[in-house]
Description:
CATH topology of the largest domain: Rossmann fold
Distance between the termini: 38 Å
Oligomer: single chain
Strand content: 25-35%
Helix content: 25-40%
Low-confidence stretches: none
CATH superfamily of the largest domain: P-loop containing nucleotide triphosphate hydrolases
Largest sheet: 6 strands, mixed
Order of helices and strands: EEEHEEHEHHHEHEHEEHH
Structural class: alpha/beta
Number of strands: 10
Shape: globular
Number of helices: 9
CATH architecture of the largest domain: 3-Layer(aba) Sandwich
Radius of gyration: 18 Å
Amino acid sequence: MAEAGVILAATGVVKRFNALVVLDRVDFTVGAAEAVGIVGPNGAGKTTLLNVLAGALRPTMGTIRFRGGDVTGAQAAERCRLGIARSHQVPRPFGAMTVFENVLVAATAGGGFAREAAHDRSIDALDRCGMLRVANRRAETLGLLDRKRLELARALATDPIILLLDEIGGGLTDAEADELVGTILELRKRGLAIVWIEHIVHVLLQVVDRLVCMSAGRIIADGEPKAVMADAAVIEAYLGGGVA
């Protein structure tokens, strides 16, 4: 049974690549409609954890549970159908397809929706991400902000319960990042749970309820965002600063 309110849980997760231990006995939970930020220095294991949660990687040890069910052995496609969607740090849309076609592929192949439902899901996702204005443009013509928005729209078109975001603010100007924050805050109002890895901490703090800091494959702090950022172990992990 899942803990009350917990929809996604990693318990005792270890991930090794040969002799290299990238995740070291990680316990991590996300509650329904909760937004959790993950920070930490490069090489901390953040993206590996996201990949294990999404099903792109299988843990060497440990279990992943979603809505009370064990999904440790489930592939990424199966988890997507269950309601776990993710974005990638570097957007890789189908460049020769239109924006709408990119999202439609996600709704059908990722979400498993039939034609009419997939069309409706795609329109809704584009609308929520402010992308209807460019729906008929080829994806290869988009600037970085719109590529990030398209990445988000593709994830939303699968009708997720929880959204895993990997540095979606990376490479954006402050003004562009603020626009993206506005979109993600709107998604939160619709009850989506969010796990967000981000190096731009001041952007992250505008959205999340809880902050987790990782270092050397372990979670070293987990709690209220300002308290985590003031934690001595977190400051040391960041070599005394440079986290904002």
